[in-house]
Design goal:
alpha+beta; 7 helices; 28% strand; binds ligand MTE; binds molybdenum atom
Length: 424
């Protein structure tokens, strides 16, 4: 729904922040674990007109500009520069590294988005605690072995940061946004295996009165601008939790790697990556709506928490790739959407004057991407911009430009990919 509605203008968000601050002062808003004084400081920093740059430790994870990060502290797996671009505590997949790679993103090149650092947990002393007033009886604890005795569910799904593509708000649209300056590599598709969240909730005694569940990570407290926001956590409506959400213990046929949530992570198909809590240690089940800074302050748009991701496309090509003139080139790319399957992908090599269909190379799985190719025989040498534009089954199409929002979420516009055509 979010992806289909018009975006709010910054002024709407500012007034949302003010309204929220008022609710906070009136005691209507509940953000457990965060001192009221701290939330006030946060709202003051975020709500002041155009003052978002003041959130030094950016909520979406960018390192302060003053500290260049040659390597992401806190990520366990190797981050060779041909596969990843390190951005603060995060690592972005380089799209050219997906060329010739199959449907699923291998772990060695799957992006990592960490608010703090990967905790290295021991499955032997780990357990999942399910608790709250939405349950019949008390809390239930599940060890990894308990979960593995439940029926297993396997599905392909992308995990994608809501801020994927954020840097194009600035480079293509000239607007200032706050957060990690991702290009298009904050997305990956994996084959996840685990147990249905619904099965676990029912075993724990889910009642009909429950409305929200809130998984919470075991990584360190997240501190933004000196304010401790506690463990990374975000509520999920029970309806979605019972629909297609899984608690995954495997990724691409292997135990979940530390950086992607070992021993257990939530996978919420088609939703913003923040819903897919890693290193989950507890899940609160509540009769009343739950909140956390990750659905009231971050990862929201026009006053609503972000749910589904938008339509996007990327070429598996280096930026400024050099292509020989008068040769036929097979360009590869992928398109995906949180609204459903991709129904068409078109490519333009003449700044959007003409569009021609790209050809699918493999069937698309639900909640995952479509791989496609496009044959191009450039005649004249020079600089070109390659444009790929996808449409999904809901009818949503990538626009040429998209509406600004302060944190730069859900950039769905066509990305102009520069290439050079060299004389032969
Ligand atoms: N516990 C915890 N879960 C988390 C995060 C985090 O920092 N801590 N980051 C979230 C965000 S913003 C995204 S986009 C995805 C990224 O998943 P990945 O690192 O496996 O690619 O994890 C989400 N789950
Ligand atoms: Mo994210």
């Amino acid at each position: 729904m979010i992806g289909l509605m018009p975006y709010s203008q910054p002024s709407d968000e500012t007034s949302y922040d003010r309204r929220r601050l008022r609710q906070w002062l009136d005691g209507d808003a509940r953000t457990p674990g965060v001192a009221r004084r701290d939330m006030l400081r946060l709202f003051a920093a975020a709500g002041g007109a155009g003052a978002l740059g003041a959130l030094g430790a950016s909520p979406a994870g960018a390192a302060p500009a003053a500290s260049p990060a040659p390597r992401a502290a806190g990520i366990v797996k190797p981050l060779p520069p041909e596969l990843f671009t390190v951005r603060g505590t995060n690592a972005e997949t380089n799209w050219p590294a997906l060329k010739g790679i199959g449907y699923h993103t291998p772990v060695d090149r799957f992006f990592v988005r960490n608010h703090t650092a990967t905790p290295v947990l021991d499955a032997a002393d780990w357990s999942l605690r399910v608790w709250g007033d939405g349950l019949r009886g008390g809390e239930t604890e599940f060890g990894l072995d308990d979960l593995k005795t439940l029926p297993a569910a396997t599905r392909s799904a992308f995990v994608e940061c809501a801020g994927n593509g954020r840097s194009f708000f600035t480079s293509q649209q000239g607007s200032t946004v706050s957060g990690t300056a991702w290009t298009l590599g904050a997305v990956g598709v994996a084959r996840w295996r685990g147990v249905r969240l619904g099965d676990v909730l029912r075993r724990a005694g889910l009642t009909r009165r429950a409305v929200d569940v809130m998984p919470r990570g075991l990584d360190a407290d997240y501190v933004a601008d000196g304010v401790n926001l506690g463990r990374v956590r975000r509520p999920l409506p029970v309806a979605k939790a019972l629909d297609d959400v899984i608690l995954a213990y495997e990724m691409n046929g292997e135990p979940l790697p530390p950086d992607h949530g070992f021993p257990l992570r939530v996978v919420v198909p088609s939703w913003a990556g923040i819903a897919s809590i890693k290193w989950v240690g507890s899940i609160e089940v509540s009769r009343t709506p739950l909140t956390s800074p990750w659905n009231t302050e971050f990862y929201r748009l026009h006053g609503e928490p972000i749910t589904r991701q938008v339509v996007r496309s990327a070429f598996e090509l280096p930026w400024n790739a050099e292509l020989a003139a008068s040769h036929e080139h097979v360009l590869h790319g992928r398109s995906w959407s949180g609204n459903g399957l991709i129904s068409a992908v078109e490519v333009s090599t003449d700044d959007g004057e003409h569009w021609s269909p790209a050809e699918p190379v493999a069937p698309q799985q639900r909640h995952s991407w479509l791989r496609w190719e496009f044959r191009w025989r450039p005649t004249a040498p020079g600089r070109y911009k390659l444009l790929a534009r996808a449409t999904d089954e809901s009818g949503a199409t990538q626009p040429i430009s998209t509406s600004h929002n302060l944190y730069g979420y859900l950039f769905d516009a066509v990305v102009a990919h520069p290439v050079r055509v060299a004389p032969i």
